[in-house]
Design goal:
single chain, elongated, alpha+beta
Length: 168
Amino acid sequence: KNNILKMKKLLTIIILVLLCSCEKNKKNCYTNFTYSKGNIKTLYRLKFNSSDTVYYLNDNPFRQKVLNYFILEQNEKKILDSLICEFKFPIKDSVFSNNQIEDGTTIAFSIDNKRLMLHGGKGPKEFWKFEEWIDHLQSYKQFKPIDREIKFDEFDKMFPVPPPIINE
């Protein structure tokens, strides 16, 4: 009986260690993730971290900037984490764009100091699928204003520099 009890305790400890290590690996996928979307109708940024809270900043220059948040359900958090963890970011900052930079949707991603900007349907498809999923997610979430300082990653310097205007 004593040996069986020791085996049960050992098995319990092994299971707990395995569960803890799996949970730890999930959390190590990213620590800081910012997503941005802009087109003629909308301009906003989302900030994700290891919690279930998502921060939303309306970044439209023609509107008042208000920080909001919404809460992810457990299954939404799992889907979000799996989508983010599957992203394959280039080593350096990268921009994928079509020739019509002045028209269309631009999405940008920053994960732990790696940045990627996509425009007009160009670039890896998994990023555009993420954009669709986020649009769907936001359509039924209730945004709540919050008075807090949240640091969003910046993407402004990634935009291609427009040609200079020459006045004759």
